[in-house]
Amino acid sequence: MLEAAVFAAIAQAALLLGAVLVWRFSGLTKPARVGLIMAFGAGAVISAVSTDLVSVAYNEAGAGPTALGIGIGGLGYFLIVSLLERSGNSEKAAVVIEKADERADHEVEGASPTEARNLLIGMVVDGVPESVSIGLTLHLGSIGVSAALVGSVFIAGLPEAIGVAAALLAGGFTLSKILARFSVIVLIGAVAGAFGYGSLVNAPHDVIAIIQAIAAGALLVVVVNEMIPIAVRGAKRWAGVLAACGFVFAAGMTWITG
Asked: Would you call 227 exposed, middle or buried from its count of C-beta atoms within 10 A (0-12, 13-18, 19+)?
């Protein structure tokens, strides 16, 4: 359980790195640069999801349960996010980057305290299924946690952290306050990773496989709804090339550690 928590925290620690980077290098908030990073991260996540979640679920539970799990995870995540957005309690980093893209100088608008809260809630909603997925891989992985999934989640988290941190900095938040808030999200990720592992310690492999498929479905919605639009808008036609590179990167990590 401790191992699951540690690796989930490592994956979410990209938020802390992203905040420090945007504080030191404000040019990172330009949509083109965010798009390149996001495209690479999207490809890495797709590779890790297909290799370390879906393929394992298919081998353990079969095609039907795997497909059902992906459908449940995708629809469930979509409904949760939709309800939060409707109630005004969730705002995505994509919104921040969209606002910057609409400005001629590509400066990010400052976040108000309410917007800051909503952005942080949105990051928690994104991070929980990722962290749970990392914890789940400890059950069915041949030699432990999926390094590819940890690496891809880390890379994918950088653009989100850059966008949100830029909005908070522009809104008057100090770096120390941003790091404190991001640290809470990392802690939540660690708890979610431990839960993903600990809640299924004695569960049959086919049950774990189905839950892995549910986590995969949620991650696919994150990639398509949040990551790919930012990647294409920022990196243009290079988005596909960078996504392919990210896919190969994650696949290589699976091959090396598998």
From this structure: buried
Do the beta carbons of residue 137 and residue 209 sit within 8 Å? no
Interatomic CA distance for residues 43 and 11, integer angstroms: 16
Nearest to 5 by CA among 172, 139, 192, 216: 192
Please report, rounded to a whole number, the percentage of residues in the chain having pLDDT higher than 70. 82
More confident residue, 107 or 129: 129
Backbone CA torsion sign across 136, 140, 142, 143: positive
Per-residue pLDDT tens digits for 186-229 = 999 999 889 878 877 677 777 878 888 888 898 898 888 877 88
pLDDT attached to residue 145? 63
Q: Which of 20, 8, 37, 51 lies closest to 227 in space, CA to CA?
A: 37
> Are 214 and 76 spatial neighbours (Cβ–Cβ below 8 Å)?
yes
Task: Tell me how many degrees the CA angle 165-93-152 measures, rounded to the nearest 5.
Answer: 90
**Which residue has 């892995």 as its token pair?**
212
Amino acid at 254: T
Buried/exposed code over 69-87 (b: 16+ C-beta within 10 A; e: otherwise) = bbebbbeebeeebeebbee
What does the DSSP assignment read for 195-210?
HHHHTTTTS-HHHHHH
Tokens of 193: 């990773």
